Amino acid sequence: IPIVGPEDENYWALNGDTYMKGAWVMHTLRSAINDDNAWFAILNEFMVENAKSHVSTENFFEKVKEKTGTDYLYFSEQYLYSANQPELEYYQTNSEFFYRWNNVNENFIMPIDLLINGTEKRVLPEKTFQSFEISQFSTIEVMDWKFYVNPIKLKN
């Protein structure tokens, strides 16, 4: 269910996942930004500057862009206006790890973190498979505790 409904309409998408999804979306945005100083500055400044006033989702993402230098419009379209949870499809062979986004909007460009043999690696999946070399018997985990995504391990 999208979190943000039609403008100027009494919209409430309460079907059990609204609160959980809202918290996960904020946690995911923090992880995508990957800079806690910027993240907490965004939250603090947005709260102080907009206390006792009406704001919109666009106002918040303007603050995000101001503090990070990055346009996260793709993020808000995927997580706030779409019901689709991004899926990271992946598989590995003895020498390569393959990954791609599925169930995402056309402009979705979010990075995601992986643990490769205990070492963190940030990748930028696309809608087509990409890969990188790994050593035989590598252990790879999708860090889905930092991102609201559905990891799907495919059979190779």
> What is the string of helix and strand elements?
HHHHEEEEEEE
The biggest sheet amounts to: 4 strands, mixed
Structural class: alpha+beta
Side-by-side strand order of the widest sheet = 5-2-1-7
The count of DSSP E runs of length 2 or more, i.e. the number of strands, is 7
Shape: elongated
What low-confidence regions span 5 or more consecutive residues with pLDDT below 50? none
Fraction of residues in H or I helices: 25-40%
Average residue pLDDT: 91
Strand fraction equals: 15-25%
Classify the oligomer: single chain
Rg calculated over all Cα atoms: 17 Å
Q: Please give the count of helices.
A: 4
- What is the straight-line distance between the termini? 32 Å
Describe the structure.
The chain has 156 residues and is α+β, with helices and mostly antiparallel strands. It has helices spanning 18-33, 36-49, 57-68, 73-79; strands at residues 87-92, 96-102, 112-116, 119-123, 130-133, 140-142, 150-153. 31% of the residues lie in helices and 22% in strands. Strand 3 and strand 4 form a beta hairpin. The radius of gyration is 17 Å and the shape is elongated. The model has no long low-confidence stretch (mean pLDDT 91).
